[in-house]
Amino acid sequence: MRRDLRGRVVLVTGASRGIGRRTAERLARLGARLALSARSQDELAKIVGECRALGAEAEAFPADLTKPEDRARIVGDAVARFGGLDVLVNCAGVGSFGEFSTSTPDIVRRSMEVNFFAQAEMIRVCHPHLLKSAANWQPAVVNVASICGRWGIPSMSEHCASKHAFVGLTEALRGEFARYDIDVLLVLPGVVRSDDLNRHMLRNDGKIYLDFDGAQPPEEVADAVVRSLLTNRTEKACGTASWWVWFGKRMFPRGVRFFMQRKVWNWHKAEGERRKADKPTA
Ligand SMILES: NC(=O)c1ccc[n+]([C@@H]2O[C@H](COP(=O)([O-])OP(=O)(O)OC[C@H]3O[C@@H](n4cnc5c(N)ncnc54)[C@H](OP(=O)(O)O)[C@@H]3O)[C@@H](O)[C@H]2O)c1
Known about the structure:
The chain is of the alpha/beta class. The chain has helices spanning 18-29, 41-53, 68-82, 105-133, 157-178, 197-200, 218-231, 240-251, 253-278, and strands at 9-13, 33-37, 58-60, 87-90, 95-97, 140-144, 183-189, 201-204, 235-238. The protein is built from nine helices and nine strands. A seven-stranded parallel beta sheet has the order 3-2-1-4-6-7-9, with helices on both faces. It has a two-stranded parallel ribbon with strand order 5-8. Helix 8 packs across helix 9 (253-278). The chain is globular, with a radius of gyration of 20 Å.
């Protein structure tokens, strides 16, 4: 199956930067009609301008997706503006990098609030409109989760919890929505070079070596999101690291566990050596 997105209404959350922004640009080139959402109005206005310059119809729908009234408002406004809804790309999210023992209840709750509850409730609000679209097309929900939703990465505990919940929901809904002809697709990025790591992360003091500088560019993930939508790919682990963890979990889970533990040990060893080197000599 191959989807033609020309003239189709796509709501992209997390569209102000990173993966969501690049996804919006790619969808604009394919002739989709775009409802773009995030909290930052100025950044949204810029990306709306860029999409229009590419010849696409695009509109900004600013919202804090953790608020039920915002979710209902933007979906209602987008449907009123475009006359329906064919695809939801759930891409808003936050990261959290640090050990669970030194974290706070607020960080766990915020991770779940943005990465799980907001996305889950967006699907619920969009469902009746996707159902209408199914009368003459094959609508879809694309959930941009993370490889953290398939394997618990040390120092990303609350992030992994929120993404596992999101992946579980995705799999369950895939079965539930099949009878409505609504596809539920899953994209699993690895470590991605966010536009602004400080805004993306609720905390950034993890004790495992993850290469954020050498990470995957958001453009590559956006390509995977759009390809998944075009070809109706159920699940895509993007990037080499993500693919190896995804594949390794199936084929040699003990090897992946050992690899993760080594990364933690190596971080502590390097930290010990750094401390020794910093100690002033008497
Ligand atoms: N970066 C990575 O290493 C990585 C790896 C795997 C998976 N992912 C996942 O991929 C998705 C996109 O990540 P990214 O790297 O593109 O991150 P990003 O550059 O930080 O973008 C996150 C987007 O989510 C929006 N957002 C955050 N909180 C929101 C809220 N309460 N309401 C509405 N919008 C909100 C942000 O917009 P505003 O701030 O303007 O609201 C922004 O547009 C996330 O779900 C993330 O967990 C990222």
